[in-house]
Amino acid sequence: MQQTPSTASSTTSSPAPASTAYDYVLDHRPAPDGGAPRRVVLLGSTGSIGTQAIDVADGAPERFRIVALAAGGSNLDLLARQAVHTRAEAVGCAAVDLPTLRRHIGEAAAAAGVTGYDPDLFVGGSAATAVAAWPAADVVLNGITGSIGLEPTLAALAAGHLLALANKESLIVGGELVKRAAAPGQLVPVDSEHSALAQALRSGTYAEVDRLVVTASGGPFRGLKRSDLAHVTPEQALAHPTWKMGRMVTTNSATMVNKALEVIEAHLLFDIPLERIDVVVHPQSIVHSMVQFVDGSTLAQASPPDMRLPIALGMGWPHRVPGAATPCDWTKAAQWTFEPLDEEAFPAVALAKRAAAAGGTGMAVYNAANEEAVDAFHDGLIGFTDIVDTIAAVLEESPDSGPLTLESLLAAETWARGAARARCGR
Length: 426
What we know:
It comes from Arthrobacter zhangbolii. This protein is of the alpha/beta class. 42% of the residues lie in helices and 14% in strands. The chain has helices at residues 8-11, 22-25, 48-59, 76-86, 98-112, 127-132, 150-158, 168-174, 176-181, 192-201, 234-237, 247-255, 257-270, 308-316, 348-358, 362-378, 386-397, 406-424, and strands at 38-43, 64-71, 90-93, 120-123, 139-142, 162-165, 187-189, 209-216, 277-281, 287-293, 298-302, 339-340. The strands form 2 sheets. It has a 7-stranded parallel sheet with strand order 4-3-2-1-5-6-7, sandwiched between helices. Strands 11-10-8-9-12 form a 5-stranded mixed sheet, covered by helices on one side. Helix 10 runs parallel beside helix 13 and helix 16 packs parallel to helix 18 (406-424). The chain is globular.
């Protein structure tokens, strides 16, 4: 990866890397008006991203048609209802066998008064990967949580689909492996922060970018010192003040691991060196991120905290979807505040930057150790501050991975999970 100089004056003469955000930020695909709706595959359809994506598609049937769904299986009844509702051509589920999935879809169809619905079904650990490669698709929205989204991400890219990526872990863990698999214009971010950055980046060239500023809500423990966090409970960690998310992402937000992962994702997506990506705490969650340019101008993307906006933009990129979300009401008084990140209380961001800078499988180890430590925290085996301490210890112990391949990534993950479990007493 090409690295640009860190000073503002020298960035003006730096060419963009061969594969950078500008390959798609400035991409101009044909406008959807008057054409057929984009055919969308949803991975992780029963989660927060997936359910909101279906809301977006329902609100814009002229733009989007859901053609395939996949989910882990923790909410099989919902998956079956979604399949019937969207008339998806393919349905995948990791946790059940074929007769069970067929039975649930049949029961959901009968309850809805639908006859003759018979989608292709995929089950088992490779179900999401098979659905990601569904040939009758234009866009794959990967909303799976965790590094298990890596192989579906690679499958969607190999199939030539536009990939709207909400599964940040697959890019963070896969790193250059994912970037090499993506053609120009094929990878679009869905996280609100990276969607904001992509929107702001359209206002300048790569050489004109000075810094990226990623905003953080601060989570439920904003303003607390490290000593205050020692006795935090799982219930407190899940009480996010702004966003409604799943257990893993919400806990990651409380530890700032989620923000750490987003910094690395921004680095990989936009080819901006890690030392030129900052985190600022913005508790109102209205400004979703900012781009600072070399002339001193900073452009911010602002909207109320509603994931339907970046989801709609990701599925329809580069075109906006009218009415996707409610805008800010500028007739009402409002106050926005910005605070520096307390890296002593929340060391996750600095730790991730060091792991990413070291290269290889460092971020795969970071992410796997975190996932195991979060589960251990919710099982009552470790304390809240032990989550990031576990990541640091496992990173310190991790062996040299050798060349970066899918096999070396998976091996590093397996090792890191075992090391984290042992440290957490699992």
